[in-house]
Amino acid sequence: MLSSFNSSFNSFDENSSKWNQFLAAVIITVFTFPEFQPNYTTGIDGSYAWAFNYLFQSDFNSLLDLRFPISFLGFLRMPTTEGVNLIYASIFHFGLKVGFVLSFFSYSSNYFKSKFVPILLCSSICFFANLDVLLIGVAVLGCLKYGESPKPYLIYLVSVTAALGFSIRFSIGISILSTLIFAIIVNLVKRKNYIGAAGDFFVSVAIIVLVLIVPFCGVDGLIEYFESGINISFGYSESLSLQPKNNRLQLLGFLFPIFYLFVFTIQQSNSRALLILIPSLFLMWKHGMVREDFSHYSMLWYYALFFWGVVLVSTEMQKRKTFLLACISLWALSANASNTYGAKALNHEKNGVYNLMNISFGYSEWFDKNENISTKKVSINILPDSVLELIGSNTIDIYPWDLCYIPANNLNWKPRSTLQSVSFGSWYDREDSKGFSLETGPGFVIWHKVKDKGGSEFASIDGRSILNDNPLATQQIIQNYSRVYENSNILLFKKKSQRKISRKETAEKIKVKWNSWIEILKSKNGIKRMKVYSNLNYYGMLKSFLYKSEEYLIDYSFNDGSIITYRYIPSTARDGIWIHPFNSLYDLDNENGDVVKVRLRCSKPSVNSDFLEIQFENSSFLDSMVSE
User: Fold this and answer.
1) How far apart are CA 292 and CA 230, in angstroms?
2) N or C: which end of the chain has fewer CB within 10 A?
3) Could you tell me which residues come within 8 angstroms of residue 49 by beta carbon, excluding any fewer than 6 positions away?
């Protein structure tokens, strides 16, 4: 690809025309255009991809009301064949990548007169980077330009990019906003222009608010969006952390060159760039290392490639040493990828021209093909005719997450604000539970069964139980709905006219030690939960902030001597870990397989206080879980 530039860009230096730079950006974009897979499937990720595309086309108001990590333009990251979303996404990706390349060229022109190095670095980044990295990259490059020559319009453009980031995904917006704030602070320290820095900050915030206040229909909607994003972010580490066996030497090999830069080159010409890069690099580190499956981890690698590209551009001296550090860091991070869950080769766009041709000239055929693929994939969720007759045209929602029951059966969907019940901690569970109230809940709820290796039909993600992940949402369904149908795949609940709970008995708190067995008194005619109150010590809080939360486990011991282990989330455990009836919602009198004792463990007990408190709670009901 690089050889094709030679004839067109012989004058690509500080005197190059804007036309040549634009043409270079278009060519790089064409060769690295992303491959879209606009079909969707059942499960967590596949069904929310369908949901965001469907809601954007058919129910935009519900989309704005979501309390979810992804926002109303989230379909741009994962377009499907709903409406013309695929065309919107294609245009957006093309424009974004062209904008990124032009931003990279503009920044590198201050350091390189040669055409070759900027094209090589930018092409390498574009072969790998996804939407998140490109959008954050555009903002970072704008902040770097602002740091060199503090022209207010640069930071104002970054503010618009931040608003766009928040419109797609909260994590993108917060990465850009934190970089923007750092850039203003760095500029303030260097130039001592307090009035100018304050003005840039307040105008930037005002731009973000003004851009977002329109789609969110006022200040209240915007505040709720930021409140939900912040709460979800706080619950991210403890609720979604994975614990693969990393190669510590390889992680050290990734981190050491970065620390070396900050310690030994901070006084050099690239110091400003390094400081401005800090917040986005740290947030991407958290994103990739907390949820350490390959999808999240690879995004860290893509961003690290961009980080080192900027560092190489910004370094005026010792470029060979910097290049060596970059190679070591990227190789080490790539080598450790084999330890992540679902590890595979790093994705790169090797068929960009073909991808663009598919959309530009074979769109109808390609569209129909993917629509048929989606229909076939979700057909496993087609319900029996008797169930469809029972539901009729009444509103319905899906619990916990497989939303593809809606398109498979053309149901009258009433989405809740959390969209899916994949817990992000206690705040998310409380918000989730509101979707099943008597006042605002749907007429029916499909609770699809998810089996685990222990035989339970109430599995959650990451070896947890949905009954423990979402105790408040589960309680709302039990209180306000009655089971009217069941087969091997689903439970169907219908909303009742009044709540079921008649009595709740809560015992005194008991202080216990980690890794000790706790006797369980026999339960009858009700649900027994155990509320667990544990606290991180200072070391645990620091480790969770800089890296990730530890793994928390509960062992269930039964009267036959068997033991089953589940992970749990500490914050939702405060609302109750399910004890009896074990892994059942409605067999309240079943004494077979009773839990006789439990044990609470942590993968690294030293991060917690020595003792934790437990509190048993028994709930009784007016009627059974089966409707008349």
Assistant:
1) 21
2) C
3) 40, 75, 78, 80
The parts of the chain modelled with pLDDT lower than 70 are: 1-17, 113, 265-270, 500-502, 523-525, 586-593, 621-628
Rounded CA separation 600/528 (Å): 17
Beta bridge partners of 611: 513
Handedness of CA 478, 481, 486, 491 (dihedral sign): negative
Q: What is the DSSP letter of 614?
A: E
Residue 260: closest CA among 217, 315, 188:
315
User: In the prediction, which pLDDT does 368 show?
Assistant: 92
Comparing CA positions, the residue from 229, 239, 627 lying closest to residue 470 is 239
Within 10 A of 536 (CB to CB), how many other CB atoms are there?
18
DSSP state of 14: T
Phi and psi for 566 in degrees, rounded to 5?
A: -130, 150
Q: What gap in Å lies between CA 609 and CA 612, rounded to an integer?
A: 7
Tens-place pLDDT, residues 255-292: 999 998 888 766 565 677 888 999 999 999 999 999 99
Q: Are 344 and 294 in contact (CB under 8 A)?
A: yes
Structure letter (DSSP) for residue 626 = B
Tens digits of residue pLDDT in 154-205: 999 999 999 999 999 999 999 999 999 999 998 888 888 888 889 999 999 9
Cα 146 from Cα 191, distance rounded (Å): 12
Q: Tokens in use for 589?
A: 């009198």
To which H or E segment does residue 601 belong?
strand 595-602
Q: Which residues pair with 595 in a beta bridge?
A: 558
- Angle of helix 116-128 relative to helix 294-314, nearest 10 degrees, comes to 170
Provide the pLDDT for residue 593. Answer: 60
> At residue 250, what are phi and psi to the nearest 5 degrees?
-70, -40
Q: Are 135 and 168 in contact (CB under 8 A)?
A: yes
Q: DSSP per residue over 493-550, as a string?
A: EEE-SS--EEEEEEPPPEEEETT-EEE-----SSEEEEEEE--B-HHHHHHHHHT---
Buried b (16+ CB within 10 A) or exposed e, 159-174: bbbbbbbbbbbbbbbb
CB within 8 Å of 423: residues ≥ 6 apart: 235, 239, 429, 432, 460, 469, 470, 569, 572
Q: Is 43 helix (H, G, I), strand (E, B) or coil?
A: coil
* 527: Cα within 13 Å, side-chain hemisphere: 27
Q: What is the CA radius of gyration of the chain?
A: 27
Residue in the block written with tokens 């930037």: 204
Query: What is the per-residue DSSP string for 565-600?
Result: EEE--HHHHTT-EEEESTT-SS-TT--TT-EEEEEE
C-alpha span between 429 and 574 (Å, rounded): 12
Structure token digits, residue 408: 């498979």
Q: What does the pLDDT look like over 205-219, one tens digit per residue?
A: 999 999 999 999 889
HSE of 421, CA atoms in CB hemisphere, 13 A: 33
- What span, in angstroms and rounded, lies between the C-alpha atoms of 585 and 596? 18
199: its two tokens: 């003005």
